[in-house]
Automatic annotation (TrEMBL):
Domain HTH luxR-type positions: 750-815
Pfam families for the chain: GerE, HTH_77
PANTHER family: HTH-TYPE TRANSCRIPTIONAL REGULATOR RV0890C-RELATED, REGULATOR-RELATED
Protein name: Putative ATPase/DNA-binding CsgD family transcriptional regulator/tetratricopeptide (TPR) repeat protein
One of the GO BP terms on file: regulation of DNA-templated transcription
Gene Ontology MF, one: ADP binding
InterPro entries: HTH_77 (IPR058852), P-loop_NTPase (IPR027417), Sig_transdc_resp-reg_C-effctor (IPR016032), TPR-like_helical_dom_sf (IPR011990), Tscrpt_reg_LuxR_C (IPR000792), WH-like_DNA-bd_sf (IPR036388)
Keyword DNA-binding: yes
Length: 820
């Protein structure tokens, strides 16, 4: 076959599927344009496809005209098709005829043979290419054209193929292939993935980075990518100048832009991703002194042009709006242009202000301050998955430039999103940075920020920190006259006091919060306080009243379209049903919240609901169902990074594994849970369900082995403990207790575990074993029935039991009778 195709310079890596699909497309379509940013690999892909066409056997009877490659990068446009036509004619060795237009001569030469014409780098002569190819395709029925350009030719019959960045595994393969060519024996490491990810899978950038392994390790390259244009500047000397460095590749695209396109491109660098509305709001309007004007009405067409020229990427649709982004290398280049134009401060400030305004509006909707249907709230939660980069950028700009009040307002506005998603650690840290720099701020900013920080601490199960921050917030919010945030601080403080056993103080806080939110428009806060009261009443063993409060909270939350808030109350109802010995009701409440919480990705509460389902299944002896629910709960807790939740999940797994017959695994997981609790700064645990787990194991295998396995668990890293729990039911037979002389004791002596109950609780447990009611216990001990009920609830909680009968059975073996 006739051709002038240059040989492929090296092994073609990745995009095998794209190449195959393009080959098939060219069998049925006559004009295909590969579009993409500079350095994305358009030419390399076109060359590989052209070679595949060249190597394919010709169709029967075909007048084979060959495959021809036409390089247009250095063609100078003059507004006509002549310069492009001359380059095509030269490649095909077609001579010009006196008195006849060259396009006519080309059409005549290409009328009969089956030719594939590859037109490379059409972007700077795109109109001329469109006219010429349109004319040739109309007159030459067997001609096919494969073009590469940073924007479509926009001619009839054109099929535009957007060349995307390499997939992550393809980018790694390309890096390794080129790195081993530069330094034989190069060994891969995790830094290779880091490098290719940072370079967005852009082939030119990956190849330039791989060439640096002659003198740098992959780890060194990763560290130097902050200055990527300097690092990626030593390309192949035989390549065209625009492909020798990453900057040159992007410069080539930038030089082809008109004035408004350059202005918009540099201003878009303030975003990590955006919608048209965001671009119009931030990038248009009045410019700083000496800056260029960009009317808002022009943004749509200018943005479309940047998409067409492959400098802006369409990433998909979220919430009914198309979103866009810049590849990281292009964004860094554009950011340099923004700074050079003297516009950085103005437009990064505009970006931060836009993010803040949206966050405060959306935060009010998320917390029920402003009415909205549940579907709208769900959309907001998902919106902030895509807006995360913009929020981080706005916070970084605010902190770096001393805009502490704005940063704290942003942290406060979005706390509901971070708590729901279990992203507490990062956002608590960001909030703390602003708090440490802004202790003298206006109480109207600082008070709500401290209250929001307290809520983040509750979300992370750090109740001591939450109590301190709520206390600091309270006086400031009162001073500012902010009833909503004052009530928020009071409710958060009450939650912390309840966990500390200070029930009267917690009730007083809730009473004050109730008084502040009696007016219209405060339904969410009233329901929030009502749910907190329900949880407090559970701790006080006032189960009937607790149920009334939790039912009311769930009902109000549903009425205002806030199903996340309703779920919080329903999880309390599930726990209440467990304590009342009503597994069907418990299961129903826990199961009902799962689709709601999954809809907004509320990982921590989803984990707690699943843990409840697991406990119910375990109590009923349904071990497969228990394992399924507890495994999902543990995985979610681990992904949220809330260590106390992980510890609780490991405790639940210890009981499950014990029921499955793996004594060693049960003790090991219990030990790991204890150590993890201590690592969070808490006590190793009261035993809760743990005492019930360990006691029969001590009886069966003896204290020495239990102590050994307990030590193994306490020394086990949390990730290893999680992996151990998720491994599946074990088949290890229960070991036998060693005795002096090396023999195994056939029937180990019972070992009574050290109890976590107080002396009073042990006394009440003994009375329960005698069959006394709360009233009978009160009469026996000369206390109130409510106090007796509270003690019984504490015993149930500490021992992990769900009924008085379980307490009675336990007390027979573990609480000595009076006088013994």
């Amino acid at each position: 076959m006739k051709t002038n195709l240059p040989a492929e310079p090296n092994a073609f890596v990745g995009r095998e599927r794209d190449a195959a699909d393009l080959g098939r497309l060219l069998e049925s379509m006559r004009a295909v344009t590969l579009c993409g940013a500079g350095g994305i690999g358009k030419t390399r892909l076109a060359l590989h496809v052209a070679h595949a066409v060249l190597d394919a056997p010709p169709a029967d009877g075909a007048d084979d005209g060959g495959v021809w490659f036409v390089e247009l990068a250095d063609v100078r446009p003059d507004g006509t098709t002549e310069p492009v036509a001359r380059r095509v004619a030269a490649a095909l060795d077609v001579a010009e005829e006196d008195g006849r237009p060259l396009t006519e001569t080309l059409a005549g030469a290409l009328r009969a043979p089956a030719v594939l014409l590859v037109l490379d780098n059409c972007e700077h002569v795109v109109e001329e290419c469109a006219k010429l190819t349109g004319l040739l395709l109309a007159r030459c029925p067997r001609l096919r054209i494969l073009a590469t350009s940073r924007e479509p030719l926009r001619m009839a019959g054109e099929n535009v193929w957007r060349v995307p960045p390499l997939e992550p595994d393809e980018a790694v393969r390309l890096f390794l292939e080129r790195a081993r060519a530069a330094r034989p024996g190069f060994a891969p490491s995790g830094a290779v993935y880091e490098v290719t990810r940072a370079l967005d899978g852009m082939p030119l950038a990956v190849e330039l980075a791989a060439a640096r392994v002659r003198v740098l390790s992959a780890e060194q390259i990763a560290r130097r990518l902050a200055d990527r244009f300097r690092l990626l500047s030593a390309g192949d000397r035989t390549a065209p100048a625009r492909q020798r460095t990453l900057r040159a590749a992007i410069d080539w695209s930038h030089e082809l832009l008109d004035g408004p396109e350059r202005v918009l491109l540099r201003r878009l660098s303030v975003f990590s991703g955006w919608t048209l509305e965001q671009a119009e709001h931030v990038c248009a309007g009045p410019a700083p002194p000496g800056g260029a004007a960009l009317p808002a009405d022009d943004v749509l067409d200018t943005l479309t042009a940047l998409v067409d020229k492959s400098l802006v990427t369409v990433t998909g649709e979220t919430g009914g709006e198309v979103r866009f982004r810049l590849l990281d290398s292009i964004r860094e280049y554009a950011a340099e242009r923004l700074a050079d134009a003297g516009e950085e401060a103005a437009f990064r400030g505009r970006h931060r202000d836009a993010v803040l305004a949206a966050a405060e509006r959306d935060g009010r909707v998320a917390l029920g301050v402003e009415p909205a249907p549940w579907a709208d709230r769900v959309a907001l939660f998902h919106r902030y998955d895509t807006e995360l980069g913009n929020v981080r950028a706005a916070l970084t700009w605010s902190l770096d430039h001393g805009d502490i009040a704005e940063g704290l307002r942003l942290c406060t506005a979005l706390r509901a999103f971070w708590i729901a998603r279990g992203r507490v650690a990062e956002w608590a840290d960001r909030t703390d940075r602003f708090l440490s720099a802004g202790r003298d701020l206006d109480p109207r900013v600082l008070g709500p920020a401290l209250a929001g920080r307290a809520q983040l601490a509750v979300g992370g199960r750090d109740f001591a920190h939450a109590a301190r921050r709520a206390g600091e917030a309270l006086a400031l919010c009162r001073e500012a006259g902010d009833d909503f945030m004052t009530a928020t601080a009071l409710i958060t403080g009450a939650e912390c006091l309840a966990r500390a056993g200070r029930f009267a103080d917690a009730a007083a806080c809730l009473d004050e919060a109730d008084a502040l939110v009696r007016g219209p428009g405060r339904e969410w806060t009233r329901a929030y306080a009502c749910a907190a009261r329900g949880y407090l009443l559970i701790r006080e063993s006032r189960l009937r009243e607790a149920r009334e409060r939790l039912d009311t909270a769930a009902s109000v939350m549903r009425e205002i379209g806030h199903l996340w808030g309703a779920s919080h109350a329903m999880i309390g109802l599930g726990r209440l049903a467990e304590l009342r010995g009503d597994p069907d009701s418990a299961r129903g409440n826990y199961a009902a919240v799962l689709p709601i919480l999954a809809e907004i990705g509320a990982r921590p509460e989803l984990a707690r609901a699943l843990a409840g389902l697991g406990r119910v299944a375990l109590a009923q002896g349904d071990l497969p169902s228990a394992r399924a629910s507890l495994a999902r709960s543990l995985a979610l807790s681990r992904s949220s990074g809330i260590r106390l939740d992980v510890a609780r999940a490991l405790d639940a797994f210890a009981e499950l594994v014990a029921c499955e017959g793996d004594a060693r695994g049960a003790v090991t997981l219990a030990g790991a849970a204890s150590a993890l609790r201590e690592a969070t700064g808490r006590e190793p645990g009261t035993g809760a369900r743990r005492e019930r787990v360990l006691e029969p194991i001590r009886r069966r295998i003896g204290e020495p082995l239990v102590a050994q396995y307990w030590g193994e668990g306490r020394a086990m890293p949390a990730d290893d403990a999680v992996a151990r729990a998720l491994r599946g039911p074990g088949t290890v037979p229960p070991p036998r207790r060693p005795v002096p002389g090396g023999a195994a004791e056939a029937v180990p002596a019972p070992v009574t575990p050290p109890s976590t109950l107080t002396a009073r609780e042990r006394e009440i447990a003994r009375l329960v074993s005698r069959g006394l009611s709360n009233r009978g216990i009160a009469d026996e001990l000369v206390i109130s029935p409510a106090t007796a009920a509270r003690h019984v609830t504490n015993i149930l909680t500490k021992l992990g039991f769900s009924s008085r009968a379980q307490i009675a059975a336990w007390a027979v073996d573990n609480v000595p009778a009076e006088g013994s």
